[in-house]
Amino acid sequence: MTENNTVETSESSSCCGSCGTSEASSDQATPAVREIFHVQGMTCGHCVTAVTTELSKVDGVKAVAVDLGTGQVTVDSDKQLPDADVSAAIDEAGYELTGRVAV
């Protein structure tokens, strides 16, 4: 329980706040849009790399996280991504976009 409190504290506050770098980093790291897609056919680390690489090429994408167990791909971006762009990237990686997950 003490470990959880330590983690929460370090994530929610800066070291001293005098330099302002922690605040600026937090603001820049926050995506404008988080979308979750369901992708069929991913089974291994190579799949994760292929999907991540192709989605990262889509304009505005800042981060991609793949959950092999659920087939869900979380994408953080500057703006909502066009379905056609996401579908094309996943197709290029060799997999099938089967839908969006409600966030």
UniProtKB/TrEMBL annotation:
It comes from the Bacteria. Transmembrane segments: none annotated. Keywords: Metal-binding. Residues 1-28 are annotated as: Disordered. Gene3D superfamilies: 3.30.70.100. GO terms for molecular function: metal ion binding. Signal peptide: none annotated. Residues 33-98 form the HMA domain. InterPro entries: Heavy-metal-associated_CS (IPR017969), HMA_dom (IPR006121), HMA_dom_sf (IPR036163). Residues 8-26 have a biased composition (Low complexity). The keyword Metal-binding applies. This is Heavy-metal-associated domain-containing protein. It comes from Streptomyces bathyalis. The lineage of its organism: Bacteria, Bacillati, Actinomycetota, Actinomycetes, Kitasatosporales.
